[in-house]
Design goal:
Layout: E1 2-7, H1 15-27, E2 32-35, H2 58-69, E3 72-77, H3 86-95, E4 108-115, H4 121-133, E5 137-138, E6 144-147, H5 148-151, E7 152-153, E8 156-157, H6 160-181
Parallel strand pairs: 1-2, 1-3, 3-4, 4-5, 4-6
Antiparallel strand pairs: 7-8
Helix pairs in contact: 1-6
The chain binds ligand FNR.
Ligand FNR binds near residues 9 and 16.
Amino acid sequence: MHMLGIAGSIRGASLNRQLLVELQQIVTPAHTLEIAEIADIPHYNTDIDDPNGIITPASVLRLRQQIHQADALVIATPEYNHGIPGVLKNALDWASRPFGKSALIGKPVAVIGGGGASGGIRAQMQLRQVLNGSGMHVLTRPEVALRFADVFKDGQLVDNGARDTLQRMVDALVVWQRKVTST
Ligand code: FNR
């Protein structure tokens, strides 16, 4: 399975992005996981988007193509003020177009991430709603909402329990991907 990872944080030392890097190591060599770059995507604006992609920014066309080519998405999101970070929602809004022909429609997706005491679960709930609304097939279990203070040390994932949960998530996503794309 070829997965595309999207991190909802664009800071250099993002732990959510690091979670995707750890996941890359976990899935290799059985699967591949490419990590998307969303930092250079501008604010969504219909004035600079068109169905033929002639005026659409190159960073957006790249993301849409990466999504088209992926068998499944894995989105790692932090929680900002009990919700989804704006950069992530913005990237998804771009990805949801052209209307009716979006790369997101019918695509399997898993939501993971972490942050403070709640593990970012409120952002994950919002994100699942947005992904469902975009026509994606959202994996429901296992939930991966990590309290980063417990599982990361010096920017590295040091918790084997978290690693096991990530492995179970990938195993479930493989089954889910086969199920939803065979119908
Ligand atoms: C946060 N953080 C945060 N954490 C949380 O559990 N609930 C929240 O509502 C918020 N709100 C929030 C708002 C803003 C503007 C920032 C910058 C941060 C903390 C945040 O989740 C934590 O720092 C994560 O580690 C950020 O993810 P990355 O950048 O490490 O991937």
